[in-house]
Design brief:
The structure holds two protein chains of two kinds.
Chain A: H1 20-25, H2 31-36, H3 40-50, H4 62-67, E1 77-83, H5 92-99, H6 101-115, E2 117-124, H7 129-144, E3 160-165, H8 175-182, E4 206-210, H9 211-229, E5 239-246, E6 252-257, H10 262-269, E7 279-283, H11 303-308, E8 317-322, H12 327-341, H13 347-364, H14 372-383, H15 390-415
Parallel strand pairs in A: 1-2, 1-4, 2-3, 5-8
Antiparallel strand pairs in A: 5-6, 7-8
Chain B: H1 5-17, H2 25-36, H3 41-51, H4 55-62, E1 76-81, H5 84-87, H6 91-102, E2 115-120, E3 131-134, E4 137-140, H7 144-155, H8 175-183
Parallel strand pairs in B: 1-2
Antiparallel strand pairs in B: 1-3, 3-4
Helix pairs in contact in B: 1-2, 2-3, 2-8, 3-4, 6-7
């Protein structure tokens, strides 16, 4: 058995931990003195040595990302926190901000000091009211206490933080799209290179990091590399938040060391399947990661383990589907999402997601054709690796994986003249 | 002009916040929406002039994001999540029933201008499925009956406390106020429908007849200045007492003061699990 850990969640059960005074009593902002006692270069090295990998989906090593920031450009360096959490099934960052917003502020201070940033931005999606309120209050309180602004805590380091609200666009979770949006443009991705580390916000060196990543940094500074590496594996060290939803008894966020077997997350922490139903499929990291099945429950949930099982760890958003869930409907729902959220910049994604939505819709309503499955695969082939950003790749994941594991179900939709699942737990979209 | 002189002053504050003025475009479009109820053509022209952009540039941005509206929305914006975890727990029954009750297609506003109902994509609260938001505040694990109770309350111009009210979650009492807050300028001015929160994330006391907070001088509207359009306004209206004092649907944190009793499970559909919000590791 892998025990749950309490690192990022250590203050979630504490009353009023969102208030600065209480947060400080709970060792909050304790990493600042440790950080200011080191050189920025040493801090970057520390994060490199810790092996911390980005928690926003791609899992890129954070210290290495910081190390790529261009030096001596004569331009400012920017830290932009990606709080645009919108990957279906993912709800870790919002709960972190609701319960422990100062953890992010503390992380922003330490990380900004490490990379030489004087103006940090937090891009928070507009649709989440309460986390926004909490975070703004935390930033305001930090300013009042001299933790932000000029001469942070007497260190001589100046830092301003701006909370910037998104306006409804999943694509803005993609880092170059996020930066476009922050510049007041349409949130469309840009070609890389140049990478944001060289030309990001306002064409200045920029790092874009996820909320959970930044909130993890102060822990590494305070407790050290060995402590951090005592959790997880060599290549995927540290604690991680897992968001579990769908057909489980006890959905929620759970914190485990990376590498915890999926079975312990789904059947243990999340209480197992609702109503004693059998597990049919689950996503390891949101709708953009290929679905896995009951056969994969012993897969270690870290970057290597999940990749080895043919999927991706993504945001560690575990959506669990029981035997009652029709895979065609599930794919249709996700594809409606991608068709709606495709930014329209590149043709494979813009056109492909819409065609897949139409085909899945006709399969579900009994208008499917025997060659529809081949057409779906063909469209997926035309999108994957050929679209401008990862949104297109992600859009193919549910369909490719459902066809791999549940092809019979698709065929039944054609031969049976419609959906064999009674009850219409998932209704076909109105649009 | 859609943006009043006072609001233009606040817009300058936003522009000064960023290294480049154009970064203030999204916040300023939220301000425009707070004052004008939607991204109006006249407002687009005004914003373009303010930032030295063309109307086409501003329009291109405004039409990209779903939260910018091309027609006015109701005082309450009800957003029902349609993504799979919510859909598996009945969210589409909820959105369909709401649209039927309001006699509008999804995205429409009822005749009185009080409520707009829409389906939206994942709201990042999947453990609370099905998730319904009012002015971006969450009402989680609602049965269809409970969701309809919520809707009826809104139609009576009453705002039930959101799921995590005891934790500090508070529902913005108007869409105008919501859009003001999204601009990043703190509490909305009173004339815009303020008085919901004191800005520290704590719920304000809501009792019958409480006077709205006095407006700050810079935010005060001039006498005789038209109020925001009907439906977006709610100027100086009395705040509303919570319905029965109980949140609808799941119950908020047990660790905070001010716990409210759980709502009785509905007769129909899967009963929402009435339980306090547990700590991490126990799930919600």
């Amino acid at each position: 058995m892998t025990d749950q850990v309490k690192v990022l969640t250590s203050r979630w059960g504490e009353r009023e931990a969102y208030k600065l005074d209480r947060y400080s009593e709970l060792d909050g902002y304790a990493s600042l003195d440790a950080a200011f006692g080191k050189s920025p270069e040493d801090l970057v090295q520390l994060v490199k040595d810790s092996g911390l990998r980005g928690r926003g989906g791609a899992g890129f090593p954070t210290g290495m990302k910081w190390g790529f920031l261009a030096k001596g450009t004569g331009k400012p360096t920017y830290l932009v926190v990606n709080a645009d959490e919108s990957e279906p099934g993912t709800f870790k960052d919002m709960e972190l901000l609701e319960r422990d917003p100062h953890a992010l502020v503390e992380g922003v201070i330490v990380s900004s000091y490490a990379i030489g940033c004087r103006n940090a931005f937090i891009y928070l999606r507009g649709e989440c009211g309460w986390p926004g309120r909490r975070l703004q209050a935390a930033i305001d309180a930090a300013y009042d206490k001299g933790l932000l602004g000029r001469d942070v805590k007497g260190s001589g380091f100046d830092l301003d933080v701006v909370l910037h609200r998104g306006a409804g666009a999943y694509i803005c979770g993609e880092e170059t799209a996020l930066l476009s949006s922050l510049e007041g443009q349409r949130g469309q991705p840009k070609l890389r290179p140049p990478f944001p580390a060289v030309e990001g916000l306002y064409r200045a060196p920029t790092t874009v990091n996820n909320v959970e990543t930044i909130a993890t940094v102060p822990w590494i500074v305070r407790k050290g590399v060995d402590w951090f590496r005592s959790m997880g594996s060599d290549k995927s060290p540290g604690p991680k938040l897992f968001s579990v939803s769908g057909d489980v008894v006890n959905p929620g966020n759970f914190e485990f060391p990376l590498g915890v077997p999926a079975r312990e997350v789904i059947m243990g922490a999340a209480g197992g399947m609702r109503d004693g139903k059998a597990l049919k499929a689950w996503t390891p990291g949101g709708s953009s990661t290929p679905m896995l099945t009951a056969d994969h429950l012993d897969t270690p949930m870290d970057f290597e383990g999940i990749t080895g099982a043919g999927s991706l760890l993504g945001t560690a958003a575990v959506m669990v589907f029981s035997e009652d869930v029709c895979m065609v409907r599930a794919c249709l729902n996700f594809t409606e999402f991608y068709a709606h959220e495709s930014c329209g910049k590149c043709t494979p994604c813009r056109e492909g997601t819409d065609w897949m939505r139409k085909i899945l819709g006709r399969l579900e309503t009994g208008q499917g054709r025997p060659d529809d499955m081949d057409t779906l695969k063909d469209i997926c082939d035309s999108i994957f690796g050929r679209s401008f950003c990862a949104l297109g790749d992600g859009a193919t994941s549910p369909i490719v994986s459902a066809l791999k594991y549940f092809r019979d179900e698709f065929d039944e939709h054609v031969s049976g003249g419609g959906c064999p699942f009674p009850g219409a737990r998932v209704t076909v979209g109105a649009h | 002009m859609p943006l009043s002189d006072q609001t233009l002053t606040r817009a300058e504050e936003l522009i000064a916040r960023y290294p480049q003025p154009r970064s203030a475009l999204l916040p300023i479009l939220f301000l425009l929406q707070a004052e004008d109820g939607y991204v109006s053509p006249a407002g687009v022209a005004q914003v373009a002039q303010l930032l030295g952009l063309t109307k086409a540039e501003v329009g291109a941005v405004a039409t990209f994001y779903t939260m910018f509206r091309r027609r006015p929305v109701g005082k309450y914006l009800v957003s029902v999540c349609k993504t799979l975890p919510c859909q598996l727990r009945g969210s589409r029954e909820i959105s369909a029933a709401m649209a039927e009750r309001l006699e509008v297609p999804l995205g429409g506003t009822d005749e009185s201008g009080m409520v707009t109902v829409e389906e939206v994509e994942c709201l990042a609260a999947c453990d609370g499925a099905p998730v319904v938001q009012v002015n971006t505040e969450n009402y989680e694990r609602l049965s269809t009956d409970e969701a309809m109770e919520l809707l009826e309350a809104l139609l009576r111009d009453e705002v039930p406390p959101p799921t995590f009210a005891a934790d500090g979650s508070v529902t913005e009492p108007t869409t105008a106020g919501l859009h003001w807050r999204l601009a990043g300028l703190g509490d909305p001015p009173a004339g815009l429908g303020a008085g919901a929160a004191d800005g520290d994330g704590q719920p304000a006391e809501r009792s019958v007849g409480r006077e709205p907070s006095p407006p700050e001088p810079t935010e005060q509207r001039e006498a005789g200045e038209p109020q925001p359009e009907e439906g977006a306004g709610a100027a100086a209206r009395d705040p509303h007492p919570p319905v029965d004092g109980a949140p609808i649907g799941r119950v908020a944190d047990g660790e905070a003061e001010g716990d409210r009793p759980p709502t009785a499970p509905s007769d129909e559909g899967p009963a929402p699990e009435d339980k306090p919000r547990p700590q991490a590791g126990e799930g919600r």
